[in-house]
Every structure is written in C-alpha cells, then in structure tokens.
Design a protein that fits this description.
It is a single chain. Helices cover 47% and strands 13% of the residues. It has three domains: 126 residues, Glucose Oxidase, domain 1 (3-Layer(bba) Sandwich), CATH 3.50.30; 110 residues, PtsI, HPr-binding domain (Enzyme I, Chain A, domain 2); 331 residues, Alpha-Beta Barrel (TIM Barrel). By secondary structure, the chain is an alpha/beta fold. Helix 3 crosses helix 7, helix 5 packs antiparallel against helix 7 and helix 22 packs across helix 23.
C-alpha cells in the first residue's frame, strides 16, 4: 500500500557522509522474517542440529559468491567486511549456544538461534564505545541470512538497480552495499545506523552522500519520490518544490566552493598570523588511512587505534602481526611521529575466552589499561610488537584510561620486562621510546601534576572526559543535550591539565572530537594547546581557521570565557566574537557547533 505523498517534508537524521544530492527514491523493502517456534522430539534433535549447520554453510557460500562477483576495484577494497561476516559464521559462541539450545530445550533451529541472538545482543548493547556497539549490526546481518536459509526464503536481488537513485532502506548490510552497482547510486538513506555503521563508512569512503538514523524514512517515502539529501546537516527533503530545490542547489554550490578553497590549505603550514606553529596530526585505525592523512596535511599520526586488530576473530593477534603492522605504520609515516594507543576495549565483552561476567557498568569496568595490566600476556605481546617496530620510525606509546600513578607505574614495569626480554634476545628497539597517558578520567586531570613526573607526554581524550566529568551519556537522547564541550567545568579541567603539563615541561595534545572543530580549536589554542589530532578530512579547515587569527587574541578570548557561568553563555559569546571579526562564511562553516 503506497504512503500518502509528502510535499516539502523535512526529516532529520545523522549526517553520515557529506554532500548534497537530488534523486529519485529506490525503496529496499526488507520485512523481518517471521520465525516459527516449535518443540521437537528427542529423535529429531540430531537432524535439527544438522539443519542448522547446513544453513550456516549455505550462508558462507552465499557470502563467498558475493565477494567473488564484486567487479569494481574500488568497491573490492571494502570486501574485508564480508570476511568479518564469514568469521562470525565461525563464532564458537554462536554455534555452540544455538546447538545447546536445540539439544537441551528440544526446540527448532530458528527458535534456538533467536535465543542465542538475544543473549549476544544484550552484551553488545552494554558496550560504551560507539564503533564497537555498531558492530552489533554485523551480528544481525549474519543471523538474518541464517534465518532465511533455514526457512527457505530468497535473498533480495539488489544488483539490478537502474538509474541514478537514492537507496532508501530500514537498514543495509555490507553485502547489500557491496552488491550494488554503486555508479548507479546517488545516495543512501536508512532508518537506523550511526556514523560508524558500515553503510556510513563505505559511503564516506566512496564519496556518496548518506543520512542514517532517520527512523521514519521508509514509512514516509514512496519508491520514485523525489528526494534531496544533505549529508552534512543530516537532512532529507521529500518531494521538494522548485523553490526549495533551488535553495539546496545554491547551498551545494557554496559548499563545493568552500571545500575547494579549504583543501588549498592542506599543504600550508599550520600556524597563526603571529607565527605560532601548531602541530596537526591524524586519528586513524588502519595503516591504509595514512595516504588520506598525508593528502589532507597531517604532520603525523596523533592516535593510532589498535582495537581493530583484536576484533572479529577467534584468536588473539600474535606478536608478529603486531610488529608487521606497526612497522608498516612507522615506515609509512616517517619522518613524522606515530602515537600508538594500546588496547582500549574491555576483555569481558570482546576477547573470546576472557569473559569476566556481565558487568553492571562496563564503561567504568574492566577495560583499557585496567584490562591490559591484568591480562599481562596480551599486553606484553602488543608492547613487544611496538618496541620491535620502533627502529623503523619514531613511534610513541599511549596508555588509555589512566586513573592514577599506580596504573602508569605498573604499565611501565611491564614494559621494562618486555625491553629486558628483547635485549636478552638481541632484538633491537628504540631504547628512548616515549610513553604517554591519556587524560580522559577526572581523577587523572586532578592529579595531572603528579602524572607528569611519570610520562613523556599527555593526550587529552575529550570524548570520554566530557562524559565522565558531566556524567552524561552522549548517545542517550534523553540527556545528550547536557553534553557540552564548552561547559565551564570542562574548560577548567583542560586548563588545569595544560598548566600542569607546561609546569613539568611535558607536551600535551588533544585528540577528541573537540580537536576537529575549528571554533573549539581556536579556544583551545588560547588555553595553551598547540598539538591537535583529528579525523584527516578536518585538518584543512582547522588550518584555515588557525591562519586567520593570532595566538595572542585567542589567549585573550579564552581568558574571557572563564567569566561566564554556563556553556550556553560561553557559546553565545564565542559566536558573537567570531561574527564581529570574520566573514559570514567563516562563522557559518567554522562555528556550526556553536549553535545554541
């Protein structure tokens, strides 16, 4: 039944991949498979287990076929996502628990798998990290494929999309997006998903505008409706009038012009008008991202996340795997510096065989450095890989979620043990390798002066620091409005850390999302920060902003902000300050985050 046609209807979601595009809607209608639940007799158990195993094998063959049929070389680069799904098909817990449900509960495969999925789903929902939590969708994609095979349902053929369309779906699996002829796709729209869902990541990589998390897109949009996507603002307009379309076309021209202008700054030095040199680095999680970082003007890697090495696999990465990846990182970024953050996930949720039970509050539980100094073998293997690679370029080691001196000292002791082992084995390493502490817990910020005597550098992780300091879960829609980077408490915490670091002669960087927003960067510059690490694509616009100001006027601005009692007043003042000194375009494109 067709939905009543909407005219100029605007719906809001999450801008997952920037760009403005107009096109006709291609509706991918995916209805949830209705599961049949039935009891089975003891004599049917073995046959039911075999039926479940056949459905898994069938799913594996389907994914292999999809992978083999990807013709576009650029799309083929993302085929590793299908490898992840094939690894999930081998997951011991998924298979073992489902078979156990069949045998013990005497139920059919569909019901048994659904019970297993519910258990795993609860574990993923408890994960704090947004990227890791989004991997829950991979589990659901794989389960859906198994369900359809069990029930003899056909898998939708979406390879025959014709015309430059905007794909609209409740959700899209990696297999869906990889099968599409992406030269026929103008944009993506989904009801669910976030900025780190596979649809979002693939869209950004291929430069296809996308808006996700719209919730109501499939209930409001008909196939063939004219749509406008604004992948930056996270807006979708359904059946726009000519006047509305013209306004978006004009905005698209302005954005394209702005992007071309900003990209010119990638190769220029990051320095203020009065000659203060600023160091801009990139946050990455794969070595393949180095090229993009360098193209956008990064001087080095300020945060190399290592969690991806541990995820979606049945075994732990070996020392040789660590070494080869970090060596490649060091060689590719030289003569720049790369800062490697040690494992920053909780062992109870992600590493097979290291479950510590279902924690009530995993965000404050056994994770990051706490896990590493408990599971010393895992930690030492990673440290050994980093140290061995350190002779091929300048590497630094960053310990996450430090709460006090005891953790730093314990981590240093373990690293010394690894160094002694390498020395005995006559394996070379950088004996002066620098170590740092992430300042993302209030206790670390309060004792920054003490921590500074134990490390070579600080890196402020504002994402977690803001959440912990303000007791706000930024992904909780009911309280996310309280997540305020310019809250007086946050500014005071950052100022205190910077002052402690400067007093001790310890360099301090900032690597959270604040570092990628030009307006915030200018405020942080005024507070004494001179090293920032961010998403590579943000570097040119931050450079442009820095080259338009003096460090002295930023210092005066930052000092004034401590007179205000609320974040709202601080935002208003900063925006007004910029409006008086810079062009309308500057304020519009560099101060979007200051909207109140």
């Amino acid at each position: 039944m067709a939905i009543q046609q909407q005219i100029n209807k605007v719906i809001h979601g999450i801008g997952a991949s920037p760009g403005i595009i107009t096109g006709r809607a291609y509706l991918v209608e995916r209805f949830k498979v209705r599961l049949h639940q039935k009891k089975i007799g003891p004599s049917q158990v073995d046959e039911e287990v075999e039926r479940f195993r056949r459905a898994i094998e069938e799913a594996r063959e389907q994914l292999k076929e999809i992978k083999e049929n990807i013709l576009d070389p650029e799309v083929r680069l993302h085929a590793f996502i299908l490898d992840v799904h094939m690894m999930i098909l081998d997951d011991e817990m998924l298979i073992r628990d489902t078979i156990e449900n069949i045998r013990k509960k005497k139920i059919n495969s569909e019901w048994a798998l659904d019970l297993t999925l519910g258990k795993l789903d609860a574990a993923f929902k408890a994960i704090e990290d947004e990227y890791l939590r989004e991997r829950r969708s991979d589990l659901h994609y794989v389960a859906s494929r198994i369900f359809r095979n069990l029930m003899g349902k056909k898998h939708d053929d979406i390879t025959k999309i014709k015309g430059k369309v905007i794909v609209v779906a409740h959700d899209l699996s990696p297999a869906d997006t990889l099968q599409m002829r992406l030269n026929q796709v103008a944009g993506f729209i989904t009801d669910i998903g976030g900025r780190v869902s596979h649809t979002a990541i693939l869209s950004r990589s291929l430069g296809i505008p996308a808006v996700v998390g719209l919730e109501v897109a499939t209930s409001l949009i008909n196939g063939g409706d004219l749509l406008i996507i604004d992948g930056e603002a996270g807006e979708v307009v359904i059946n726009p009038t000519e006047e509305v379309s013209d306004s978006f076309v004009e905005r698209k021209k302005r954005i394209k012009s702005f992007e071309r202008e900003v990209l010119k700054y990638a190769s220029l030095p990051a320095e203020t008008k009065d000659g203060v040199r600023i160091h801009l680095q990139a946050n990455i999680e794969m070595v393949d991202e180095i090229s993009s970082a360098q193209t956008h003007g990064a001087e080095g890697i300020g945060l190399y996340r290592t969690e991806i090495l541990y995820l979606n696999r049945k075994d732990l990465p070996t020392e040789e795997e660590h070494y080869q990846i970090y060596r490649k990182l060091a060689e590719n970024i030289s003569p720049g510096i790369a800062t490697i953050r040690t494992l920053d996930i909780g062992g109870d949720k992600f590493l097979d065989g290291y479950s510590k039970g279902n924690e009530m509050n995993p965000a404050m539980g056994l994770r990051a450095i706490r896990f590493s100094i408990q599971e010393t073998d895992i930690f030492k293997i990673q440290l050994s890989g980093i140290l061995r690679a350190s002779v091929y370029g300048e590497l630094r080691i960053l310990f996450p979620m430090i709460s006090g001196v005891e953790e730093i000292r314990r981590a240093k002791t373990l690293m010394e043990e690894v160094k002694k082992g390498l020395t005995r084995a006559k394996i070379p390493y950088d004996r002066k390798i620098k170590i740092g502490a992430m300042i993302e817990i209030p206790s670390a910020s309060v004792t920054a002066d003490i921590l500074a005597t134990e490390v070579d550098f600080f890196s402020i992780g504002t994402n977690d620091l803001i959440q912990y300091a303000l007791a706000v879960d930024r992904i909780n829609e009911h309280v996310s409005y309280l997540y305020e980077p310019l809250h007086p408490a946050i500014l005071r915490i950052i100022r205190g850390v910077v002052q402690a670091a400067q007093h001790a002669g310890v360099p301090v960087a900032i690597c959270g999302e604040m570092a990628a927003e030009p307006a915030y960067v200018l405020v942080l510059l005024g507070m004494g920060l001179e090293e920032f690490s961010m998403n590579p694509v943000a570097i040119p616009k931050v450079k442009k902003a820095l080259r338009m100001v003096t460090a002295e006027e930023m210092r005066i601005l930052a000092e004034k902000l401590f007179d205000f009692p609320t974040g709202t007043e601080i935002k208003r003042y900063v925006r007004q300050w910029m409006a008086e000194r810079f062009s309308e375009d500057f304020v519009k494109y560099f101060a979007e985050e200051l909207k109140t």
